[in-house]
């Protein structure tokens, strides 16, 4: 490289030989060419916005998406900016960086293991790119990280057990990748976790009982994987969970009665597994539950009368199981019920008259045996229950 270099490349030249640029020592923790390295690698001409980039140093004049505190770069937000190329390894030197947003670009390559040295980093968003490779085990050292969004990429590794050391992590989004392997038991140590999204991957193995220690967890998405085994009794400790998505896996065994202690649960999705056994009476304690999907399993036994205590229930899907018995009269207390799907079971008897008070019900789909008629009666209507009752012979 000669002495006559462009303004863009001069910034990186200053980074490569930063000791010869002493006149800008006021930039503190920030090493001058670190941010501009991305500019030179990508070319920047395709960026949607590039004001200030490559013309001088950040923190001395305004660069698009860059925020400073004195001489330290604290935030970079280049989301949706048509950026290509790879993530610069050298950015680990920006020890004052706290927020980094690069979502919705076309970045490729791998995650730099060196970024584990970003000791002040609080928020990292790299979702909706073309990133691949492994999740660096070294990132378990970013002890202050609160939010990590890596969903909608093409990562193909296992989940690092070392990430269980990020004790303050609140939001971790890894869905829509090609991740595999088992779920680390050590992640049960992430006591501050609120939202964990792992759906649409290829995870296998069982659900770690240790995750029942994450008492503040609010949303857990594990659907569309290859998980198996039984549902852990200890997960009944999830008193704060609002949404639990476990559908489209290969879970077997019975429904844990202890899950009835999930008093805050609003949405429970367990359909399309291989679950068996009966419907737990104790689940009637989940009085705030609004949506329950248990269809397409091998559940048997009768419909629990206690479920009539689920007064907020709106959508109840129990079709395609092996359920039997009659329709509980007490279910008429579910006055907020909108969709009730009970078809493809072995239910018998009549539709209880008490169900006529379900004024919000939109759809009833069921098939019940009536031995006195030696026939099965199908009910499928989008009408009030009393009108459905009138359709029965």
UniProtKB/TrEMBL annotation:
Keywords of this protein's UniProt record, alphabetized?
Leucine-rich repeat, Membrane, Repeat, Signal, Transmembrane, Transmembrane helix
Name of the protein this chain belongs to: GP46-like surface antigen, putative
The entry's cellular-component GO terms read: membrane
PANTHER family associated with the record: SOMATIC EMBRYOGENESIS RECEPTOR KINASE 1
The record's annotation in Pfam families points to: LRR_1
Superkingdom of the organism of origin: Eukaryota
Where in the cell? Membrane
In which broad location class does this protein mainly occur, judging by the first location in its UniProt entry? membrane
Signal peptide (from-to): none
